[in-house]
Structure formats: structure tokens, C-alpha cells
Amino acid sequence: xxxxxxxxxxxxxxxxxxxxxxxxxxxxxxxxxxxxxxxxxxxxxxxxxxxxxxxxxxxxxxxxxxxxxxxxxxxxxxxxxxxxxxxxxxxxxxxxxxxxxxxxxxxxxxxxxxxxxxxxxxxxxxxxxxxxxxxxxxxxxxxxxxxxxxxxxxxxxxxxxxxxxxxxxxxxxxxxxxxxxxxxxxxxxxxxxxxxxxxxxxxxxxxxxxxxxxxxxxxxxxxxxxxxxxxxxxxxxxxxxxxxxxxxxxxxxxxxxxxxxxxxxxxxxxxxxxxxxxxxxxxxxxxxxxxxxxxxxxxxxxxxxxxxxxxxxxxxxxxxxxxxxxxxxxxxxxxxxxxxxxxxxxxxxxxxxxxxxxxxxxxxxxxxxxxxxxxxxxxxxxxxxxxxxxxxxxxxxxxxxxxxxxxxxxxxxxxxxxxxxxxxxxxxxxxxxxxxxxxxxxxxxxxxxxxxxxxxxxxxxxxxxxxxxxxxxxxxxxxxxxxxxxxxxxxxxxxxxxxxxxxxxxxxxxxxxxxxxxxxxxxxxxxxxxxxxxxxxxxx
Length: 540
Fold this sequence. Notes:
mainly beta; Ig-like_fold
């Protein structure tokens, strides 16, 4: 006896790949092959066999394999190499025979169009009892999932590589989840659309790997869960695959210099970002929390990559925002390939630092001879390494970025220099007088607003600092990034960008026949001075 009801029940668990409504004809010579797809639907189910409908599109090869319950579903290339080939047609019905009654099976299929492979499609079926009746209630639906309860699903770790991504998830009150990966920005499908278009799998603790992605691609992962006819809210996460230049081989470096240091937080526990460089032009940037020893050096010990990033000894992991930016902890090779650090440790000992890191694709080992002194680390983003005298060109332009009754913001620029000056004063227009430092909270009259450098502008493949206003650590205010402070960004003839935020010093402004002379002697927070003079007319 065959059961229509049971066929309906197991069909509900079929994983159906999106079938593109396009021709299966091969492309003309020289044209890129269209992406193949394959879908599976369940046909008649018996005690020792069942039928599967194989529906390919844009394919010149299709194959399938039978997977026993609990076994891993093979990748597309393995299915095509080792599976049973299927004739190319609109729909081909195959019969899977010699099966065990009351047993769950999975059929997995893949298609190819030239060298282009499809995603893997799967369908599950449980054979009937030996007498042809329905099997005893089992895992369809999952008996551990309360019937009718609303399911929920949350994306966990998303680990992109060059052409793949692996993700984890947690689900509640759900027997199945489904996922779709789209090129960003995506279409934001609802939960039911994710199940109808995407790949459906039973809930488990196993990580899921998706293949055949483009290198340096920007994608959105859409995930949903269901419990019978009840669907969860979709969960989504953006990610980027790595550059095709990223290597899977282990890398070793010997760093010889500290290229830059930044104090992100200057509390009892320091929050530092240190960039180590070698003679070939490779750079390793590490953001970590630490205590200091009696000599104001980073304390000895083992520092480990930590997702929580709360305590001394934690290293903040990188995240691949773009092929040219990974943030926090990452390696930039001399060839410009950027790879986020996602695991491992940094061991600080007397006179030496050893790095043993992992990325999403390889491992990195490195050493640096020396210690890290924190006595002169900026907390406002200065990249100055010595005192500087700034000479503006004769054609420097002064523009007003805002003029209020108590504040004026000026921007003075030429080919190499962009200087911001924010002055607190009464009246209007450019004021005359001498101005010392103030914070944006205090806004003392006849003062300039101190600055900090933030990397905000993305220009020609790199983040360029901008000068915004400084808020004292005792009065944090994230709105500081939206207000201008005082300082300048200087670009050398060699293209090096130097950030000079003003933490202290003096600005004097005089006026003769409508021409304003601005003299400045300013300092960052670690004692470097930048000074100069510029003549401007009333701000445009």
C-alpha cells in the first residue's frame, strides 16, 4: 500500500534549488557559460524504493548519489565524478531501489555547464513499512520541537575564504532551516521565499559550507527556520570573500620595525593598535588590550584573539570588510593583499614578540625583536613622527564650513594640505586674537576646539584620516565624529599621508586691509609640533 499523505509529508522536507526559467542550450563560442541549476522533487515512495524527479537547467552534465541518514552530503564536484549520471532532459524520473523499509535516505544531485558547477540539491525520503503502511512517527516533524511554537534562527560565525563561505547558526523550536546567498545588496526575501528558493537542511550543530562564490565578492546570507507551517523571521548577514591573491600556504615573516602606534583607550587597561613592518613591505596590524610593566612597556604574556575583546590579554579579531580593509587585526602583504586575523596568539617576552596567527585560509608565523613602549603612543590618531613646519601655497583657499554666533569652522586647503580650524568666539566672521585649546564639551570662548584624526574617507584604495573634534575621555560622546576639530592632514610629495590633530598650542589671527594672517604653533598629544602661517581673505 502506498500513502499519499506520507508522500506529502516527506515532500515538505525536500530541498529544492531555484530552477532558472532559461534554455538548456549551450552558449555561443566565447560567451560565458550560464550557471547551471538542478532541482529534485519526490515521487512515489514504497517499502524498498522511491522515485525522484531530477529537473536540470543550463546543464550539460547531471548526476546524483544516495546518502544514508547521518552521512555527509558530498560536494558538487564529487557528485559529478562519482555519482550516477542522468540524461539531460526537462525532467528525468529515477527510481532508487533495494532499500531498507522504514529508513530515511537523502538523494543529492549536482549539475555542470562546462566548468561551472551548480549548488547541490537534496531531497529526503523515508521508506514505508514492509507491509506498505506508513512508518511509525519519527523525525518528520521532529518530535523534540513543540508543535505550533514559533521558530527562531540566528546566524553565528561567518567565515569567508576565497571562493567559499562557512557559517554556523543556532535555531530554536525549528526542525529545518533554509538559506540563500545573494550578491549584495540582495532582495531581502521573506522566510517562505528563502525556503522555496534556497537550500533546506535539517537543524543540526554542523557548520554549513557554500562553494562556487566569486573572489572579492560582496554577498548577503539569508537564513530562516520553520516548524511545520510556522516560519521564523529571516536573519541576514553581509560578508565579503577574500582576494584571489590570498594564499592558502603558511606564511612566515621577520618584522624589523614598528611602523605606527595608536592608543585607542588610555585607561588602566590600555587598548593599543600597533603596526609591525618588515624590509619587504609586509605589515601586520594588531589591536589588543594590555597592562604595562614598570618601564611603560607592554607587559609580558600571551595575548589571544578573542571575539568578546573585554580584558587585558585579548586581541581583537579582524573582519574582512573589503579586499583592501580588514580592520583591527590583519596582514597586508607587499603585494597589497589584505587578510583578516581570526585566531591565534601573540607571545610577548623580554626583547621579543612571537606571532602565531590563523586567518580564514592559512596560518601566519612571525617574530619581532624588541619591546613595545607605550610612553609615547597617541590617543588622538596622530601619525606625526617629528616636528613639522607647514608652508601653504600662495593659492591656498579658505572656506567657511559653518558660521554661528558662538563658533566658526574654517577649512584652508592647497594641493598638499587640508587644515581645519574650529574657533569659539562671539560675533560673526573670522575673529581677531589669540586662541588656546578647549574641548567641544567645554567650548570656552576665544579658544580653538581640539582635534582627533579618524580614518573615514576611502580614497584610491586606502582610508584617509579626517580631522574631527576631540571629546575628553571623561565625557565621551560619539557625536564627535560629526563635528570638526582643529588640525591638518598633510600629504608629502611621495604620497605619504600625515595626520596632525591639535591637542595643545596656540593660534593667533591678525587682519590688515581685509587680509587675515593666521599663525599657528600646535602640538599633538605626544609632543610633536606643527607650525606655520597662511594669509587668507574673508572665508568664502
